[in-house]
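User: Structure with heme C, tokens only please.
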Amino acid sequence: MRIWMFSGVIGAIALAAGAALSQGATPDTTATRVKFPADFAKSFRLYDKVEKADRKIVRYLYVNPEALAKVSADAPFPNGTVLVMEDHEVALDTAGKPLVDAAGKLQPTGRVKGIAVMAKELMWGETNPFPPEKDNGDWEYASFKADGSPNPIKLDACYACHLPQKGLDFTFTGKKIHEASKK
Ligand code: HEC
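Assistant:
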């Protein structure tokens, strides 16, 4: 936390946010301010699907419409962006191998393995418990179970793997979101 950068009211907000974050975090979980976007499957834009045959899943990628309306390829994603990655199990043959259709596509089922969310808000980077070199700008991450309940895990790997994607505002599929914003 870089509280020394702030003074007065902003410092107090940063302190309060820091205190809220450290509450309830056990050594094996990472605190997060990212909430489960309950209605994402209905109200968010499905902007891409990524097949992972080796992991027997298809990932459904969603962005919230409020952010999509403000997206520009020339700027980082706006504050308030919420990105959801929902992993669907695929249909398997009797030998446990993923089935494909005539076009060679995997067959996602309605069974969801897990839901990963990343969201950004103003000043989150300044008020999270990470040292600055681990910050992903103002993004924070969260992991949820299929029913939307929190999956209490360490989130360091999310930050570490997305960190080199800084050029695309820490996303891997940011270009797909830019494309979706033009449709
Ligand atoms: C080992 C690298 C790695 C780790 C660890 C990782 N991700 Fe990702 N993430 C990716 C890749 C690669 C994609 C693009 C989709 C794909 O190819 O699977 C992605 C995509 C995403 C997306 C869709 C937006 C985007 O960046 O394109 C979200 C949301 C996301 N990850 C959240 C998380 C969360 C939450 C965690 C931790 C629980 C996490 N990720 C951990 C590599 C990683």
